[in-house]
Amino acid sequence: MDIPPLAEVRRLTEKKRDAWWTVLLVDPVATPLVRVVARWPRITPNGITWGALFLGLGAAVCFWFADWKWLLLGAGLYHLSFILDCMDGKLARLTGRGSEFGGWLDYVFDRIRVLACAIALMGGQYNKTGDIAFVWLALAVVFLDMLRYIDALQIFKVRHSMRKKIKTRAKAFRRAQEEQYGEQSGDNEAGLAFMEDLLRENPTADLDNGDETAADAEAKRSADGVQPELDADGQPIRKKEVIDLHVEFKGRFPWYGRFRTFLLRHRIRTHLISGIEFQMAVFIIGPLLGAVMPVTIVAGALLMVFELAIIYKLLLSTKDFERTLAKYPVPEQPEQPVIPAQPDGSPSESAATAESATAARQ
């Protein structure tokens, strides 16, 4: 295949938001390497995933010996393993050879690598020092790594559910408006846009718009004498209404928007201590500094702080979700009285006839 220039490879393969460790210490190496290996079709994304696993297991072997030279070698192998772990996805995006199975393989191998390295690193330190605290640290590292991914999955499900419910409610509301006023709004879902999606394209989208709603913007344009844009049929183009489920959070922390924008302009996400930084602290920084226990404890505490912040942000988003649903009241349909039909020979008519006959005999 024809390999595009490096700048184009970066655009195609690098995420718009990523961990700061990846942006600063991995992408500058991984992206040029992906451009090189893409020339050989025999090198597949799944093959690179296997290579990342083997390097990770090699790092675990080095960690087990617990000597400072082995710790340095293990830290280096772990970083190389993570570089390959980033390269498999980049190669898949560049060549179009990604697969669902490849995504599963990458996730499972990541968990195996963390498990093996945690047991080897802390086990080696326990054999060397006899300190039982390293056994508990091994359990804590595995637990926190799994907690991070489980929490991320559940938060994604909740946010997806909120968005789906908002779309459904807005669609029902607009249908009710059409039935009541005879207006036609076309695609009921086309008029909605979520701020999270806009921020992926423009990190300053919410700062540019502020708290101005679509209705406010339209009224302002009308007051200024600006004619609305027309479609091919000469009808005004309906502007999408932007739904922001982080208004409550940004209202309590007004500095967050500027801070986030600064980071996103450098492709760094605001979740500064995620699972990636936690792993790098435990398996690279700790061994390099010869301070496995203190670095692991500090990294674990920081990871929990950021996880709790994300959970708190989700809690505030649910309040924005409830307020958004309230903006789309769906009128209840009045219940129509049900008059049962009385066909010939129906039970009610037969009962009335029998009652009349009884009265006549009496």
From TrEMBL:
Gene3D superfamilies the UniProt entry points to: 1.20.120.1760
Any single Pfam family the record assigns to this protein: CDP-OH_P_transf
Cellular component per GO, a single term: membrane
Transmembrane regions: 20-38, 47-66, 132-156, 268-289, 295-315
A biological process from GO: phospholipid biosynthetic process
Region (Disordered): 206-232, 332-362
GO terms, molecular function: phosphotransferase activity, for other substituted phosphate groups
Alphabetical list of InterPro entries matching this protein: CDP-OH_P_trans, CDP-OH_PTrfase_TM_dom, CDP_ALCOHOL_P_TRANSF_CS
Keywords per UniProt: Membrane, Transferase, Transmembrane, Transmembrane helix
Similarity section: Belongs to the CDP-alcohol phosphatidyltransferase class-I family.
Identification of the protein by name: CDP-alcohol phosphatidyltransferase family protein
Species of provenance: Streptomyces alkaliterrae
